[in-house]
Amino acid sequence: MTLYHFGNCIALIYVPYYLTYKQSGLYVCGYFLRICSHYCIFSSEYGAFWKCMHAGLIYIFTQLAKMLVLATFFPDNVAELGNDLIGEFLKSTVDLADLIGLYLVLSSIPGKGHSKVLTAGIGWATAEVILSRALLLWVGARGAEFDWIYIQKCFESNILLVQHIVTATLVWLWSRHDLHSNLRTIVTVMLVLTAYKTLLLDLLITTVSAGPWMGLLIKAAVTFVYGFLTLVIYGGLARVIGIF
Amino acid sequence: MWLEVDEIFKNYLPYYFLVFLPIFIIVSPVNPVYGASEFPVYRMQHYDLHGVSHGCRSAAVNLEAKSLTGWTTSRHCVVTRLKDITVDHFRNIKSKAGALLVMLPENWRNLSLEDKQNYMVLENSMLIQDVPVPIYFAEYSPRLDSIISELSYSINADDMTKSSTEALMSSVAANGYQISVSVGTPTAQNDAKIATIQGYLPGYSLDGITPTIAIVAHYDSFGVVPELSFGADSNGSGVAILLELVRIFSNLYADAKTRGKHNILFLLTGGGKINYQGSKKWLEEQLDLLDGSMIQDAAYVMCLDTLASNSSIYMHVSKPPKDGSPASLVFKELKSVAAEAFPHTGVDGVHKKINLADDILGWEHERFSIRRLPAFTLSSLKNHKNFHKSTIFDTRDSLDIKIMADNSKIIAEGLARHIYGISMGNVLGKSWDTNETHIEGWLNYLSNQPRSPQLLSDKDNVLVNILKDAFNKYLRDVKVLYVVPDKRDPDFQFYTITNGILHVCSVKPAVFDLILTLVIIVYLIAIYLFIDKFPMLYAFVSSLTENKKVKVN
After folding, report:
1. InterPro entries per the record (chain A) (predicted)?
2. CB B524 to CB A50 under 8 A?
């Protein structure tokens, strides 16, 4: 029955990704032909799949760079949360590299508006979910021991998918020159907060001493509020510059 | 080119997947992780003595955990606390359940006398007959305790008093536990050998007649669990007192002026708990010697056994010693020393004939009495059938060092008076007296490690070597004699596997996974609808900003 449980977890974690990918693929296909004529020889053969792969590769590269920095400056990253807040804060600062990575993705993959942002976000998130969750589930959820943590991790990955699409959108918005300067400030603040979001949420969850399920709920709520705000800004800009 | 690759992926990936995934699943290890909970557990005794098998005969466990009242079949491993289990339960489990795991109480090293008595009765009844199912003991741990509580609670959920929905819920969501102890099958230890250590202090007298006194103590311990048999009193106390006598008399004998008329032979025998195999073998060797051993003209053989449990010393004999014989003289000396210096300690004689019909001897001196040597055992216990001689609850924490120090003083003084022929006044005193810290040091060392015979039967055992070194330091002609069981008809046979690691996996019933699938499907449908209707949300959000812009304008 444990293999069955593994199947459950896999369905829970990857099906939302697949659904999002499919849905975004619809957007992508619409733009596909138009893009073809514009960009260099390679990009004309780029499907949404390869764009996602491309985003994934940049994700891997970014993570390696981050690890290098973390291993150099923070050799012992096993400290309990709350013991060393400044250390944790500095570690989260390294997560700003993710934003640079996403910027790279956005600037290197062709496309416009919706499709560009979505492929970047999905590719990034998929690379993360495959690299960080697949092994955990394979080793953990298939064992005889039952633990809720695997189901929780799956839900968390679903939340992360939303988060990464939101981050990609924010980075894209930030890179636009035609963004209103007030909005630009908001977008910058939100981007910086993205890097520290994990730390802040963990702190919040430990201070209110919420259980794992409650913690998930808090994360989901915060991420959705975040997503909604981003969507409002994006919607406004998209209407102005005329992409749908 | 890229398009082709893309196509290959799109067209063939699912088929490859169908082939490779099962292969991948098959070749990967069956159980990649064990449960998060691991406990060290100790297996029950497993040995044969005189062709009769004792203890549990198997070791490997991989069963579902159930509480003491909830188990039904041999596919269940009963997990319980020691205080809950009774002899009747045990009898039932022994014949019908799959395995038994007993958790000892938190303070099992220092129990109240009443609890100890109850547990010892149970412990003894466990050992009477052999048990076909594996039986393990674990020390107290909060995690295991909570698992046991949970198991007994889930039984209550099956009650008819609960409503049917509650029962259904609990049957779906109940936490089950899978218990596994991955060890091989227990095999006989063919290379087992039991060491007996002897050392010697030569006496001196003008007429050249030096009778021999032998002082004997067995150094092993016994309990239902070999790895938890610390045997502080039985027979750590006997060994500690013997080593104290070694220290005192070797000092006295070192000087020609204070050298006694008797040779003193010290003997630490092994296998005392398995019918005194060590002394049996040693006697056979000695009596077979052609030139005659000094044991043949022994004045008496004094065995020390369990001397710390209470303030009284019993001299156990198989035949009452004749008046005027050395054994009766030393008895009188012991009595007078106790009367003079330790009035609360009684010294009495107990006479018990050797039961030749019984294979198992009661006291160690009977081994010598059978061979017509004058022998007696000094012990604080009145009866050889006392459970205190073979229990895991005989620990250092439950021992009173004061009583033991007093008893050792009586024995040392009585022996000295007899050896030097002084009936009045103290022979030992001041720097020659028994030293409590010395006794305590040895007792602590001995009771710090399990000393069940099978654990001491390996080659170059550390404990045996340390005892040998202690003898070498004080005595002459130190020899170690090994008992090896006969290949064809062994007197005793030990078995491997005395401990293991218990893995407890929490598992859910199969129904739970099915229900989980349903929940996940509902969740995924919700996600699908959300994504499908996302353009509507987007349109709504866009209209929001549009309105704003209008207002701003």
Report:
1. TMEM147
2. no
**Chains A–B, number of C-beta pairs less than 8 Å apart:** 95
- Whether A38 has its CB under 8 Å from any CB of chain B: the answer is no
Backbone angles phi, psi at B447, to 5 degrees: -85, 5
Residue B384 lies in a domain: yes
Clarify whether residues B199 and B173 are in a common domain.
Answer: no
The answer to whether position B147 is within a domain reads: yes
Q: Quickly state the pLDDT bin for A31 (edges 50, 70, 90).
A: very low
Task: Please tell me whether residues B454 and B530 are part of one structural domain.
Answer: no
The per-residue b/e assignment along B255-294, b for 16 or more CB within 10 angstroms, e otherwise, is eeeebbbbbbbbbbbbbbbbbbbbbbbbbeebeeeeeebb
Indicate if B344 and B219 belong to the same structural domain.
yes
Which CATH number do you get for residue B275?
A: 3.40.630.10
Measured distance CA(B231)–CA(B221) in Å, rounded: 5
In a domain, B399, yes or no: yes
B32 — contact with chain A (CB < 8 Å)? yes
Task: Retrieve residue B451's tokens.
Answer: 């000393």
DSSP one-letter code for A144: S
How far away is chain B from the Cα of A236, in angstroms, using its nearest Cα? 6
Assess whether B265 and B348 both reside in one domain: yes
ipTM: 0.84
In a domain, B504, yes or no: yes
**Per-residue model confidence as pLDDT tens digits over B357-412:** 888 888 999 999 988 889 999 999 998 888 888 899 989 888 888 999 999 999 99
Please give the Cα distance from B489 to B49 (Å, whole number). 11
Burial of B369 (0-12, 13-18, 19+ CB in 10 A): buried
Contact A162, A27 (CB under 8 A): no
Residues of B in contact with A232 (CB under 8 A): 541, 544-545
Give me the count of residues in chain B: 553
Residues B25 and B63 in one domain: no
pLDDT band, very low/low/confident/very high, at B216 (cuts 50, 70, 90) = very high
B29, pLDDT greater than 70: no
Selected residue of B9, B545, B548 to mutate for chain A interface (largest A Cβ count, 10 A): B545
Q: Does the CB of A132 have a partner CB in chain B at under 8 Å?
A: no
DSSP B377-423: EEES-S-TT-GGGG-TT--GGG--HHHHHHHHHHHHHHHHHHHHT--
* Across B117-127, average pLDDT: 89
Work out the angle between the directed axes of helices A212-241 and A149-175 (0-180°, nearest 10): 20
| A23 has a chain B CB within 8 A of its CB | yes
Phi and psi for B53 in degrees, rounded to 5? Answer: -90, 140
Write the pLDDT tens digit of every residue in A93-149: 888 888 888 888 888 877 766 778 888 888 888 888 888 888 888 777 776 677 788
Q: Which regions of B392-531 does DSSP assign to beta strands (E)?
A: 476-483, 492-494, 499-507
The alpha carbon of residue A6 is apart from the nearest alpha carbon of chain B, in Å, by: 10
| Residue A210 in contact with partner chain B when CB distance is under 8 A | no
Phi then psi for residue B373, to 5 deg, are: -100, 140
Q: How many domains does chain B have?
A: 4
Which residues form the domain of B221?
194-484
The reply to whether B33 touches chain A by the CB within 8 Å rule is yes
Do B350 and B428 lie in one domain? The reply is: yes
Same domain, B181 and B198: no
- In the numeric block, which tokens belong to residue A5? 């449980």
Residues B407 and B401: beta-carbon distance below 8 Å: no
Hey, is the C-beta of B520 within 8 angstroms of any chain A C-beta? yes
Nearest-angstrom CA–CA distance, B187 and A65: 55
For the ranges A15-19, A83-87, A146-150, B364-368, the lowest mean pLDDT is seen at: A83-87
* Residues B211 and B138 reside in one and the same domain: no
Q: For residues A159-180, give the mean pLDDT.
A: 87
- Compute the C-alpha angle B324/B329/B330, nearest 5°: 155
